[in-house]
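2024-03-11 09:14:02 INFO receiving multi-entity request
2024-03-11 09:14:02 INFO entity count = two
2024-03-11 09:14:03 INFO echoing inputs for audit
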Amino acid sequence: MNKPVKQHLIDPEICIRCYTCEMTCPIEAITHDDNNVVVDAEKCEFCMDCIPVCPTGSIDEWRVVTTPYSLDEQFGWMELPAQEDLEDGGDTGGMEALDEAMAALLAEAHEGAGGKSKAPTSASKASVNLHNLAKPAVAKVQGNFRLTGEEADSDVRHIILDFGGQPMPTLEGQSIGIIPPGRDADGKPHLPRLYSISSPRDGERPGYNNLSLTVKREENGLCSNYVCDLQIGDEVQVTGPFGATFLMPNDPDARILMICTGTGSAPFRAFTMHRQRSRGSSGGDMVLFFGARTPDSLPYFGPLNKVPDRILKKHMVFSRIPGADKEYVQDRMMVEEEAIAEMIADPKTHIYICGLRGMEVGVDHAFANIAESAGMSWSATRDAMREDGRYHVETY
Amino acid sequence: MLDLINVSYDTQIPNNVGLSSDKKVLKALEKWHPGYIDWWNQLIPNRYQQSEVYLRTAVSVDPKGWAKFDYVKMPEYRWGVLLAPQVEGRTIPCGEHAGEPAWQDVPGEYRNLMKRLIVIQGDTEPASVEQQKALALTAPSLYDMRNLFQVNVEEGRHLWAMVYLLHKYFGRDGREEADDLLRRQSGSEEAPRMLGAFNEETPDWLSFFMFTYFTDRDGKMQLESLAQSGFDPLSRTCRFMLTEEAHHMFVGETGVGRTIQRTCEVMKENGIEDPFDVDRIRGLGVIDLPLIQKKLNLHYTLSLDLFGQEVSTNAANAFNAGIKGRYQENRLTDDHQLQNDTYKVWDIVDGKIVQHDVPALTAINMRLRDDYTKDAAGGVGRWNKIIEKMGIDFELKLPHEAFHRKIGVFADKLIDPDGKFISGAEYDKGMVEWLPSHADGDYIQSLMKPEYEPGKYARWIAPPKVGIDNKPGDFEYVKLAMA
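2024-03-11 09:21:47 INFO inference complete, emitting structure
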């Protein structure tokens, strides 16, 4: 069997045959007959030039296929075929990324969900890969603030990037790639590193085309040191956005349970800000379990405390407070057992886990305990939630 | 270095033509600008001027930068002068100068012809905004209101585009023509717009959708032919306008499609199989399919008249001079001069409708009209798929080109929608079935009640399948200012 590939398609039921995409495509990969406008899988290089010019949104369709649909097949379509169920790589939740390297990184990050990730049914459709290695966007650094205390043993930074006139439509939960300058040992440019966006869809500052990242300085980390040392006004090469499943539900009644450690808080800051901005003071029905060593090493400790409980119920958990017992997120989850059991049983609840890979086992174990005490099978519940787009893991 | 891709905001007028270093034209445009803003402000009711509308604004003319979405108050929309990037070594695509380098300035011998074409095109742009000025009051949803305003601001920008050409390349009489574009008014007794179809009010939303589908498609075809012009600045202007025009086609096609969808849904919900059971269907507050056919007949035939005479020496001259080309001239594979070719045109001989060959050069209008009809027929086929999918036995179709015409060989002839000659009595009797009556208009008017709650739609129209800019269903496309 051939290795599955991603194919760019156009939805014939939405397309109005204006041929703007065809005129825009720099390599004539788009063509039409009397029936349909179609993309030639052998020619398309995923440059994305055709995506913003489409007036209908029909152009933004992707399928993973073992054999790409031929032009003749596409000419004959009355409607778009559903995503085939492929054993490997059939990604019905949306295309996370179009280049292999980024897709592989995200697939690895999402492995902890225990199966194929799916976006929440009410999530907005994410744009992916508008900028790639060959044609990255250039962002300007607008801010670089240390989030952890002077005494803290970690240096976590809040970086604000401005994209000026370049399009960078993002959703909460998506990531961007940063290309560190310089060359690797083989003299090739470095591959981009992925960072979760920590600002909501309308920008770090509403209405501005900017976004923020939450980055921890890693010892000898090529890219993290580069990013943490950025100065205001510096220019950064950016790819993406990436990710099409770890997204928040738009349904205002959806309940959100978030569990994170360290910089895993980035997407949850975005989730919270989006709900705050879109729902105002009407409440949020979000719960956050956030683990760190000490309060001054917990990113956004101050601002988080200012978010009212009716929007976000916060459980900040510390493992290195002198004189206190070590407490991890899974410990606090057990304390809140009843509240969590009630949420798991509610079909409106969406669960998100984000942080270091090491947290997965403990959190999963806590969920299993809680579910089973309530008479539910955790693995069955989790699989059903995941299939429903309501269980998401991103760890690294 | 002059940046000709990204839009420069260093003058009052966003542009990618280096206006800040072209003082003379900048000054002329800045003088014209207040008149334009006045025109806009007096046109659309103040409440909507003060509302935040989720619009797309071009921030550059390369594919990635021209669709930036954000809330903006319409009077603060950045209208500007945007030309598609210059293609190195572009040549004149057709006519006796075919193959020579494209003109970067207006050749003296064609100055008047060229100016006239630009003025006619420019005159239609503000005219349609004038025709549609009252529609927001009855918008069937905030989504539709946003689409209306997007069409309006872009028509405004298209006026800017033509005015720039007049100021830059036609000196004093160009400036006078630019002023006249703001002086004429759609439907005015003293100073009407130049083309008849642009002096009729757009009275309701179905008319608006039909107008954007059929009449704006004529505009698109005219832009397509000017995009092939040997006068490079005109070609580049029109090429960029076409990317915006696609949105207008989208509003028309999906607007009519959603109306059809809703009618079929309501028929099904109420067990109505017969699409001609008009009274019952209207009793349910949706627009019956036969009435949609009548509206289609009207708007299609009015739009055909915009193409002018089938055989035209003016059109032949414009093509031969390389001022305008045929639809997708650059993709055609003939000699691009048409000296020895023929083309089939309609005619009436001995009381019969026939087609015969004429020199292709004289049939440029007819050819563009044929391309238009083919383009327009595609969407009608897609509307029929909606009806078919809903299991209703009804088919919309374009009437014969000879029906209900005011210009060309068929003007004022007694011909039915199938293209048959009929008697005056038959014609009068048939018109009730073929074109919307006053009663039909009143019925549509009775449905025109605004729906201003995000995510809600008036009863007679279905929600769109996909939101603008991928927005969810309940997105607030217009944040209405308090009345």
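2024-03-11 09:21:48 INFO post-check: Chain A touches chain B at residues 13-14, 16-18, 20, 23-24, 34, 48-50, 52-53, 55-58, 60, 78, 122, 124-125, 127, 130, 165-167, 169, 207, 209, 250 (CB under 8 Å).
2024-03-11 09:21:48 INFO post-check: The first strand of chain A starts at residue 5 and ends at 9.
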